[in-house]
Every structure is written in C-alpha cells, then in structure tokens.
Specification:
The complex is a heterodimer. Helix content of chain A is 36%, strand content 18%. Chain A is α/β, with parallel strands linked by helices. Chain A has four domains: 2-218, 3-Layer(aba) Sandwich (Rossmann fold), CATH 3.40.50.970; 224-322, 3-Layer(aba) Sandwich (Rossmann fold), CATH 3.40.50.920; 352-520, Rossmann fold (3-Layer(aba) Sandwich); 528-578, 2-Layer Sandwich (Alpha-Beta Plaits), CATH 3.30.70.20. In chain A, the strands form six sheets. A seven-stranded mixed beta sheet of chain A has the order 3-2-4-5-7-6-12, sandwiched between helices. The longest helix of chain A is centred in the middle third of the chain and has 24 residues, at 197-220. Chain A is globular, with a radius of gyration of 27 Å. Chain A starts with a strand and ends in a 6-residue tail after the last strand. By secondary structure, chain B is of the alpha/beta class. Chain B has one domain: Pyruvate-ferredoxin Oxidoreductase, domain 3, CATH 3.40.920.10. A six-stranded mixed beta sheet of chain B has the order 2-3-1-4-5-6, with helices on both faces. Chain B is globular. At the A-B interface, helix 7, strand 8, helix 10, helix 13 and strand 21 of A face helix 1, strand 2, helix 2, helix 3 and helix 4 of B. Strand 8 (165-170) of chain A pairs antiparallel with strand 2 of chain B, so a sheet runs across the interface.
C-alpha cells in the first residue's frame, strides 16, 4: 500500500519496522513529530525528556541494555546532547542506536544555522541522509543494521524541508523486525562502557578502526549511487538538494550520497574521472567540497552557491546559469507593489502579553529565551533585548548584573525552557550571591512546538497522568527566598511585584502563571469599544494584540480573532473598552 | 502525463493545510507521483501559511520553482499577492475575496493594498485571474473555515477528475461530523 507521509512520519514508521523499543526526545521544530509519531505505535515506549542530553542518555541506556533505541532532536538540540554523543561514539552499544537530527537551513524556526554533518566527522560517527520520505523509512532500517554491524550510534540527518514534506511511502509491514522475546539482561562490560581514561584510551583505537571500516563500507553502500546521464556535468549532492538539482540538471550524471560520512574515496575518484565538470550542490557548509579538495579534485561548489540559507530549484538555476552551466530562467517581472509583512505575533489572549506590557512600562532590560515569549521582542511590545539558546536568559542576566549596570534587568523564560536548562543557571545565581530577578512565564505546556506535555503539565507524552513538578517548591527548594506566583493578567499585581522584586539585593523568582489559551481553548465574551469614549489615543494598540484594529475614529475589535481576555480593557485610560453587559 | 504545480497561500487557521492535503491525496488516487511541502512553524501565531503541491509522472522537488506554478490558490488576498513572482504566462489564479489585516495594518503603520492593485499584479503575470467569493459563500454555509474547500471546488473544474474522487478524499480527511458540510462546500465551488 502506498501512503503519503511527511519525512518525520516516515522516520517513525521506519522505527516501528526496525523494532525500536525506546524513543526519547525534547520537542523542537522541525523534529518534534518524529517522537510524536513513534508514540502512535504501541510497540515503542516514547517519552519527552526535559532536554536533548537527557533524551540521548536515555536512548543510550536502552541500547546498552539490548533494546533498539532512537533519539530525535533539531540541529541545536545536538549541541545540548553533544557530550553524550561523543562518549557514545567511544562505547558503542549492544543494540542499535539511531539519532535523528534535523538541520534548519533558512532558519524557519531556529536561532542559528549550523551544518550538523560536521558532528558526524567530529564525533566519528556514520551519518545517513535520505532524500525523500521513502528513503527516510528505509534509512532508519539501514541505520540500525549499520549501528549493530559496526557497534556504533548512527546519525540520520534530515532538514526542515524533508521533515515537513509529504511524499509517497511504500507501507510494507512485512519488513517489520520483531525484537526477540528473550528476557533482556544487562551485559556487564565496564571495559567497554565505563569511560575512565584507561578504558577510554583502548576504546579510542577501536573508534579509529571503526571509522576506517565504515569508509570501506561506504564504497559499496547501496545508497551511494552514480546515476548515469551525460558526462558534461557530474553533480554531487544529497538529501533534498538532490531533488532540487534534478529539476535544474535533468540530464546530468549524479553521485547521490546516501551516506554523508564517512565518504567513499574510491567511488568519488571514479566518478570525478568519468565526468568533465564536478558540481557540488550541498546546503550549508562546504562539507563534501572540502573532502573533494583534499583528493585534489577540481570542483564548482561554494564559489557559486551560498553557505547561508535554504536552497530551492530556482536559486540553483539562477546561480548555475550565472556560472554558465544552464540556460537562464525566464526574466522575472519585478513586484512593484508594497506588501505589508505578516510576522508571527503573540496570540490573542496570550498571557505572555501581560508580562511584556508590564516590563515595557517599567523600562526593564529583558534577557530572554527560546519559546513563544520571544515574540515579546516584536513590535509594538519590543521588550526583549537578548536571546540566544535554551536556558541562556538566567546565566546572561547574572553576568549583566555582576557588571553592575544601573538598568533594571530580568531574565524571562518559559516553564518548559526552565525545566530544559534553566535550573542550573538559577542555582548559579543563588550560589554566587546574585541579585537577579527571574520570571518564569509558566503556561503549563511546551507551546511553541505545538503543545507538548512537559514535567510541569502533569501528563506524559502518552497523555498518562504523572507527577507534576511543582515549580514553586522547586525554586524554593533550591534556596530562593523571594518567590511569588502571579497571574500576568492582573497587571497591577504583576507591575507591583516586579517593582518590589527588582529592588531586592538578593535573587528573586516570579512565576507568572496562566495556561496557554490556545491549548486549553479558553475564550471569553468579546469586549466592545465605545467609540463615544474612545479618544483614539492608541494605548491599546501598544500591546500588539491582533484583533485590535485602528479605524478612522478610534479602534474596533475583530470579534472572530478576539479571545476576550480583557487586557485591552484594563489598560484603556478612558474606560472605552467594555466587557459585554458591563455598565456604561 | 502532464505535470501540475500548485501553490496554496493563506493565513494560519484558514485551512490551507487541509486544502493541500486533499490535493495530494486526490493526485495519488488518480495515479500521479505527488509531493507536498509547506512551512507552518509559526502559523498558529498569525503568520502566513504556504503549501506547495506537485502532481506529475515523476516529481523530484517538493517545492514549486519560481516562475513555474500552474495554479495559484489564494485563501487570503495579500498572501496570494506574495506569490506573484511564481506565476508564468500560462498560470491560472483564484483568490478568495477575504482580507485579514497583518498587525502593521491594524496599527495604521502600513497600508493593505487595494483589491484592484492585487488583481493587477496577479492578472498581468497569468493567463487568467478570478476573484472567488468563497468567504461569503462559506459564511452562508455557516462556517468561514469552509472557504478553502469552496476554492478547491473551483479549482477542480480544471481537471477531468470525477467529483466522487474529490468527495471521497474529503470524507477521508475531514472529521465525520463536518463531512457533509465540506462536501457541500466543494460542490458550491464546483458548480
């Protein structure tokens, strides 16, 4: 049976076919749906771990114990999990271990662009890269074979475009590998798994040997293929870039690399001999290019294609035509109409809005973090001044405060981000006699990536009830003395608490708690603007709430978009915004 | 077997993804190789949603190449205009007559283009341009979210694919309690 699956759904189906027992991840666009889909198969135990490093350790443990395991994360998630990735390369494991890792060329939803093929080389691990959903499924099966054959974790690389595109997959459950029903017993082998220097030195030799053997294996790997066309141009490519290249160079000869590390030296030399010109089409870093150059092969690559950004068939055609490789695309008629942009905004009714409005009123320097609340930095709120990676806010604010700047400063991060990597920097503030104010914007869910449960939401990935980590007890337990839980809709309380806490010469934590209104589907009666009272002062427009629309003689509220939170009514200086039924 | 490239453009919550999901499934049912790509990471936060759908004997790229789209379906006027440079002289364009103001227009900082300006930009690049009153017709049916499926009905007139196939896919993809309404919406667009 043929079915249309996204790349991420196909990875999960591959995991099911491969008999995976344990799958763990922290959500992150574009890899979130890999584990969400694994959870749909009752043969796979799937969990949200608090961060990617924990998730990878969980998967490593499962594989040590003899169960096939999978861990998925976005590109920057592997930065968090890198420590574990490197030791797992040294230990190997008993059963197959696969890391699905999603790069985000073009930064559709990320703080940076990085090419994680570099991690394969850095950590000395094999990496496969599928070019469509059918390959996504098959490469997971192959990755487990390789993982067990060479006693190594295997990284399967994807990109946003592959993860979120739907292409045809052959659904064939007869391929499914059923794990043995024998009782699993932990194999005690500290020489292999206990990485003290004496053991690790011996293992390093094994790792070097492994990567040499994998390079030999790459020569005959069935998905490193030469697709013969004319010999004028030979294209070297992988992943979704292969699909783009095929549109632009339909008749060329291709070296399509399914294994992007280690690379097949002999195959590459043979290919280069066969064609007149070698053109390397790879998104992000010149990863293949640098290897080709070490082999002394003359190539066209990053001299014409960019390192930054996502490729497209048009981009490749345009740049290749400038280099004289193909004919130019039809001349574009430039757009001569200005189109207003449509940036993402905090949702109507979002409780984060109250926090940022209060911070803006108090003119506070805000060290922010990764999550929906990063949109507090967008106009008109424009109240986030730094953000870098998960959990950075608290460490950064502590550094800012230690320099002794006069501005009032805070850290703002979400509940899920706090569980991910906010606890350690808070310990640091407490331990090192900091004075920072930390605001945990607690909406009870991991909202940005599509409402995944987290340690504070009281439910597991599978929706089962579980221990709900109490944020207030947690921060008090760490030693914070000044702790308050406030409702960010109660602006007066929010502002008063902020003022008070920022004055303290000791660390303080404000838990600004209100559930994500999208998640709990909360909606209240829509307020109305009394245009008689409205003076068109524009105060309500400063909260950046999408349903508030400026008209000629004032402001009106789009009832369809409005969720009735009433924040605009609270800040209107002329009481012109009324809840239905309220006295005029 | 001819290739067809489609772009469906709208705003989060308008049902862009449903429309493109129906299109790929219909393509698959009638024997095409199909691919679909979309970027929707921030759509719930009011951003634009774009969906690329391709039918063909063999489809490589999941994204449509600029200057090569056969059909542009705009569920929102401004979002349709954004894809003008993807059109070619043979393209057909259908745009739902609905405006959803972006934040800078709400606050009066930016101007939402006039309908005539959008029509000019799109029609001069394509072989045909049609406004569809799908938003109004959907409201008549009692649910604005049906506009996308009405647009799909209009698009379907271009293909010799039996209505039954479209309706069958709609029934497969839409929750049971909305099936009848969506089927009605498709027929409104088609007839």
């Amino acid at each position: 049976m043929k079915k249309l699956l996204t790349g991420n759904e196909a990875f999960a189906y591959g995991a099911y076919l491969a008999g995976v027992k344990v799958a763990a991840a922290y959500p992150g666009t574009p890899s979130t749906e890999v584990i969400q889909n694994c959870a749909k198969y009752d043969t796979i135990y799937a969990e949200w771990s608090p961060n990617e490093k924990v998730a990878l350790d969980v998967a490593i443990g499962a594989a040590y114990a003899g169960g096939r395991a999978l861990c998925a994360m976005k590109h920057v998630g592997l930065n968090v999990a890198a420590d574990s990735l490197f030791y797992s390369s040294f230990t190997g494991q008993k059963a197959g271990l696969v890391v699905v890792n999603a790069d985000d060329p073009g930064m559709h939803s990320s703080q940076n662009e990085q090419d994680n093929r570099n991690y394969a080389k850095f950590a000395k691990l094999p990496m496969l890269e599928p070019a469509d959903s059918e390959e996504a499924k098959q490469f997971i099966l192959l990755a487990y074979e390789i993982s067990e054959m060479f006693d190594t974790p295997v990284i399967v690389r994807t990109t946003t475009r592959l993860s979120h595109s739907r292409t045809i997959v052959d659904m064939d459950d007869s391929q499914r590998i059923v794990a043995s029903t024998e009782k699993v017993e932990f194999e005690r082998n500290p020489g292999k798994y206990h990485m003290v220097p004496g053991n690790a030195r011996r293992r390093h030799t094994v790792v070097e040997e492994k990567i040499r053997k994998l390079a030999e294996y790459a020569e005959t790997f069935a998905y490193n293929v030469i697709e013969t066309g004319n010999y004028e141009i030979g294209i070297v490519t992988s992943g979704v870039a292969y699909q783009y290249a095929r549109e632009v160079f339909p008749d060329a000869t291709y070296l399509k690399l399914g294994m992007v590390y280690p690379l097949p030296k002999q195959l590459i030399l043979d290919f280069a001999k066969r064609v007149k010109k070698v053109v390397i089409i790879e998104e992000l870093d010149p990863f293949f290019e640098e290897y080709f150059k070490t082999l002394g092969i003359e190539i066209i690559g990053k001299d014409i294609f960019p390192i930054e950004g996502e490729f497209s068939p048009y981009l490749i055609r345009e740049l290749a035509s400038k280099a004289g490789l193909v004919s130019a695309p039809a001349t574009e008629q430039p757009m001569n109409l200005e189109l207003p942009i449509r940036p993402p905004m905090l949702c109507p009714g979002c409780a984060h809005r109250g926090i940022f409005y209060a911070l803006k009123r108090l003119n506070v320097v805000v060290n922010g973090d990764i999550g929906c609340y990063a949109l507090g930095g967008s106009p008109p709120l424009s109240t986030m001044h730094t953000s870098g990676c998960m959990g950075a806010s608290i460490g950064v604010v502590h550094g800012v405060d230690k320099v002794g700047v006069k501005d009032r400063t805070v850290a703002v991060l979400g509940d899920s981000t706090f569980f991910h990597s906010g606890i350690h920097p808070l310990i640091n503030v407490l331990y090192n006699k900091g004075v920072s104010t930390v605001i945990i914007s607690d909406n009870r869910i991991t909202a940005m990536t599509g409402h995944q449960n987290n340690p504070g939401s009281g439910k597991t990935l599978l929706g089962e009830p579980t221990e709900q980590i109490d944020l207030e007890k947690l921060v008090r337990g760490l030693g914070a003395q000044k702790v308050a839980v406030v409702n960010p809709y109660e602006l007066d309380v929010m502002i008063k608490t902020l003022k008070e806490f920022m004055e303290y010469e000791e660390p303080s934590v404000i838990i600004a708690r209100y559930p994500c209104v999208l998640h709990v589907k909360e909606k209240h009666p829509v307020p109305e603007v009394d245009l008689e009272l409205c003076t068109n002062c524009g105060t309500c427009l400063k909260i950046g709430c999408p349903p508030l629309v400026k008209v000629e003689n004032g402001v009106v509220i789009d009832a369809l978009q409005c969720n009735g939170c009433g924040l605009c009514a609270k800040i209107c200086p002329f009481d012109a915004i009324k809840k239905p039924g309220e006295q005029q | 077997m001819q290739n067809y490239d489609f772009i469906i453009a709208g705003v989060g919550g308008q049902g862009t993804i449903l429309v493109s999901d129906i299109m790929v499934e219909v393509g698959l049912k009638v024997g095409y190789d199909v691919k679909k790509s979309e970027v929707h990471g921030m759509s719930q936060r009011g951003g634009g949603v774009e969906s690329h759908v391709r039918w063909g004997k063999k489809v490589y790229s999941p994204v449509v190449e600029k200057g090569k789209v056969d059909y542009l379906i705009g569920l929102e006027m401004l979002e349709a205009a954004r894809w003008a440079t993807y059109l070619k002289p043979e393209s057909k364009v259908y745009v739902n007559q609905q405006k959803i103001f972006p934040p800078t227009v709400n606050t009066g900082e930016a101007r939402y283009p006039e309908e005539t300006e959008i029509e000019e930009q799109l029609s001069k690049r394509a072989s045909s341009f049609e406004w569809i009153d799908a938003h109004e017709r959907a409201k008549e049916l009692g649910n604005q979210a049906l506009a996308g499926v009405i647009m799909l009905g209009r698009l379907a007139k271009n293909f010799e694919i039996a209505s039954e196939i479209w309706l069958e896919v709609i029934a497969e993809l839409v929750p049971a309690k909305f099936t009848e309404l969506n089927k009605q919406a498709f027929l409104v667009g088609r007839d």
